[in-house]
Amino acid sequence: MLENKPISLSISNKPTCASKVILIEKKSATTDMGFNPWEVADLNKSAENGSFISVFREEGDTKIVSQIDKLGSKDNFKSKEEVRKAGAQILSEIKKLQIESICLTSALSSDAYLIQLAEGLLLANYQFLTYKSEKKTNSLAKINIVSSTITSKEIEELNEVVTATYFARTFVNEPVITLTAKRFSEEIAKLGKLANFDVKVLNKEEIIKEKMAGLLAVNSGSQDPPTFTIMEYKPKGAKNTQPYVLVGKGVVYDTGGLSLKPTAGSMDTMKSDMAGAAAVAGAIYAIAKNELPIHVIGLIPATDNRPGEMAVTPGDVITYANGKTAEILNTDAEGRLILADALSYASQYKPALVMDFATLTGAQVMAMGIYGAAIMGTASEEEMTNLKKVGFEAFERVHEMPFWEEYGELIKSDIADIKNIGGREGGCITAGKFLEHFVDYPWIHMDIAGPSFYTSNDGYRLKGGTGFGVRLIYDFLKSKI
Ligand code: BES
Ligand code: ZN
Ligand code: ZN
Questions:
Q1: Does residue 461 have an active-site annotation?
Q2: For residue 195, how far is its CA from the centre of ligand 3 (angstroms)?
Q3: Would you give the distance in Å from CA 326 to the centre of its chain?
Q4: What is the DSSP string of 82-99?
Q5: Which residues in the chain are classed under CATH 3.40.220.10?
Q6: Hey, is 411 helix, strand or coil?
Q7: 334 CB less than 6 Å from ligand 1?
Q8: Residue ranges matching CATH 3.40.630.10 in the chain
Q9: How many CB atoms lie within 10 A of CB 134?
Q10: Which of 336, 397, 461, 471 is catalytic?
Q11: Can 261 be counted among the known catalytic residues?
Q12: Closest residue by CA, ligand 1 atom 16
């Protein structure tokens, strides 16, 4: 298995460690730095709203590490995010002091924020050390949450969701020399064994039989065969009769193909072009591991995109299984070509909803930067609104793009039904319009090109793969039960 080391997370009624992080009311914390934090914690049980500070204490030495202003009600998404960020800040202090084990407690009337505090700490504690000859692992190995209201089930759930995010990050961080399409499918099969969901992998012959013209065209310049991975989690008590289908773009490396990308700031980060697939695999792992009563299917078309001898050329026309023809005018617009196969394939499941996740366009990054994903599609307004709401809560935010008919005009081809580029204007949307030709069910397309990969640290979202989408998908599907 690819290296993945989540830390031990537990829950108890009593503090058992020398180092503690406390969510506490500002007023009390600032009066006297020599207090016994546990007494103060008791005294402040009634505190609910206002300004709070998180206090960090290593043996006798009390230190204010992070100040949070106006922590609102526990349902306030901004406050949740502030606490996650505080967790990341506290982690940097923990690293400096080489602390191995820490207790988290709350002096507020509700302990609910401890979940986000642990979440921030855990997400910030991720490391990718596979290719470091000297492995300097972070000191923190144990978090103990001290609470009588949080259940061990909630803690277990958090731990698995974070573990799933770690998996997704590691998949993205792993270079293509290791993570070929075949290896990726094998790693997903291992996740299936760990979390008890089915994984079936179609090989190249089977992909030919299924007439997956997009996947075969994109793969034609590669030395490595494509794969099409099908995950299924169908628990006995599933609440949905029609499944939710998640599709993830699995381009394990995007050179652009014959429409070759420049290196700096472009091709150099393209090991991340399977972040959509990583998010789908991670989310299904978390759903299965936590035994959510949801029937969910994951589809991952995977290949690298290379300019090899037999590579598909600009000007080629391909014919999809549903009869639609597409003119390929730029081989770097490969994501939509392979997603089309998966979206066609999804139809056989009679899905309640299909969502696809893809690092699809530079235009999404230009429009929104790294702070969120673009959504569009044919699902109801209610679905879209709910997704946006869940996105704010998890702070994996999404913004809905217009999806007007006119954008579809831009991808009409002279010689085929559609073409795979629509010009510079509205590039994120025309990519979505291409995909729309292959759906006959409620559908949401999510372009995660910006938020899936960071080139510098930002709180608990670290340089490299961010795992964007795992927590969002998990929370969104959970909200349906
Ligand atoms: N994988 C890229 C999109 C991308 C860009 C992801 C930046 C992450 C960061 C995609 O395959 C691509 O190259 N798209 C082209 C499409 C264009 C040729 C129509 C793009 O956006 O430039
Ligand atoms: Zn591309
Ligand atoms: Zn791509």
A1: no
A2: 29
A3: 30
A4: HHHHHHHHHHHHHHHTT-
A5: 8-148
A6: coil
A7: yes
A8: 160-478
A9: 5
A10: 336
A11: yes
A12: 333
User: For a substitution probing ligand 1, which of 272, 329, 332 has the most ligand atoms within 8 Å of its CB?
Assistant: 332
Instruction: Walk along the chain (481 residues) and give the pLDDT tens digit of each residue.
Output: 565 666 788 888 776 666 777 776 544 443 333 444 433 433 333 333 334 555 565 555 556 666 666 566 666 788 889 889 989 988 988 898 888 888 888 767 678 889 999 999 999 999 999 999 999 999 999 999 988 899 999 999 999 999 999 999 999 999 999 999 999 999 999 999 999 999 999 999 999 999 999 999 999 999 999 999 999 999 999 999 999 999 999 999 999 999 999 999 999 999 999 999 999 999 999 999 999 999 999 999 999 999 999 999 999 999 999 999 999 999 999 999 999 999 999 999 999 999 999 999 999 999 999 999 999 999 999 999 999 999 999 999 999 999 999 999 999 999 999 999 999 999 999 999 999 999 999 999 999 999 999 999 999 999 999 999 999 999 999 999 9
Ligand 1 close to Cβ of residue 273 (< 6 A) = yes
What spacing in Å lies between the alpha carbon of 273 and ligand 3's midpoint?
5
Residue type for position 171 = F
What spacing in Å lies between the alpha carbon of 247 and ligand 3's midpoint? 15
- Report the Cα 68 to chain-centroid distance in Å: 26
Cβ contact 211:321 at 8 Å: yes
Strands 325-328 and 316-319: antiparallel
Superfamily of domain 8-148: Leucine Aminopeptidase, subunit E, domain 1 (3.40.220.10)
Cβ of residue 254 lying under 6 Å from some atom of ligand 1: yes
Domain topology for 160-478:
Aminopeptidase (3.40.630)
